[in-house]
Design goal:
By secondary structure, the chain is α+β, with helices and mostly antiparallel strands. The protein has three helices and four strands. It has one domain: Glutaredoxin, CATH 3.40.30. Helices cover 34% and strands 27% of the residues. A four-stranded mixed sheet has the order 2-1-3-4, with helices on one face.
């Protein structure tokens, strides 16, 4: 089973786009998706404030500059 954690914040169009991309992959792979709102956690806000969305795929972190369908798919099994 694959695990994807998506770090997002409200009113973030790019976050919504990446969430939709992950949803496409759930049709092809067994994936458990966890979405975390960084605005609910001070530590995550400091870490990811200007970097969201951030995607963690099976322990491998991708920031918004490197998230593509292919980049995610390469990390799935």
């Amino acid at each position: 089973m694959n695990k994807i954690t998506l770090y997002v914040k409200k009113r973030c169009p790019l976050c919504e786009e990446i969430s939709s991309l992950v949803e496409l992959l759930t049709g092809e792979y067994q994936i458990v998706v966890q979405e975390i709102d960084i605005e609910q956690n001070d530590e995550l806000m400091r870490k990811y404030l200007f970097e969201v969305p951030v995607l963690e795929v099976n322990g491998d972190e991708l920031d918004y500059r490197s998230i593509t369908y292919t980049a995610i798919e390469e990390r799935l099994h």
